Every structure is written in C-alpha cells, then in structure tokens.
Amino acid sequence: MDATHYLCMCADGYAGINCQTSTVNSPFYDVCSQRPNGEEKCSNGGHCIHSYNSNSLQNNNFASPQYSCVCADGYTGVNCQFPTGM
Predict the structure, then answer these.
(1) Structural domain that includes position 39
(2) pTM of the predicted protein model
(3) How far apart are CA 14 and CA 52, in angstroms?
(4) What is the side-by-side order of every strand in the sheet holding 47-53?
C-alpha cells in the first residue's frame, strides 16, 4: 500500500489488524462465517479470508473487520458471484 499502511490477509482461524486474534471465541471478528440466511460469503466455491486494512484504523487502533474472497477458477467479483465466461 505505502510506507505507513498495509493489508493483512489472515490464515483460517485468525483475524485482526495483524492477524493476532483467534476467531474461535471472538465471533465479532469472524466476518467469514455464514450469513444469517445460511449462504456463504464467497459464492461458487470461493474461499473467504479475513483481511484488515490499516487505513481503516479507528479509535483505539481498532480496525473494522473486512474479508476478501479468493475465487475458484471460472468466477470473479467481490463475492465470486460472476462467471468469467471461460
């Protein structure tokens, strides 16, 4: 990003601005969990990864939880919802 801001992509089970928080006992941080209607965040076999952008730091160095989808081959979009037409 630049010399003062960065983006962390956390391994499964971890979240936080530096991936330091276990999501097991912190459901607020687990933005990759299923939506209330039972749908996955990432469609069509995409994999959800917790991500935090240091640009989003708020009071007390708290960054709001974000997520990124790594799409399966043949899909694209924020939630892997669009076929690529391949």
Answers:
(1) 7-83
(2) 0.62
(3) 11
(4) 7-9, 47-53, 66-70
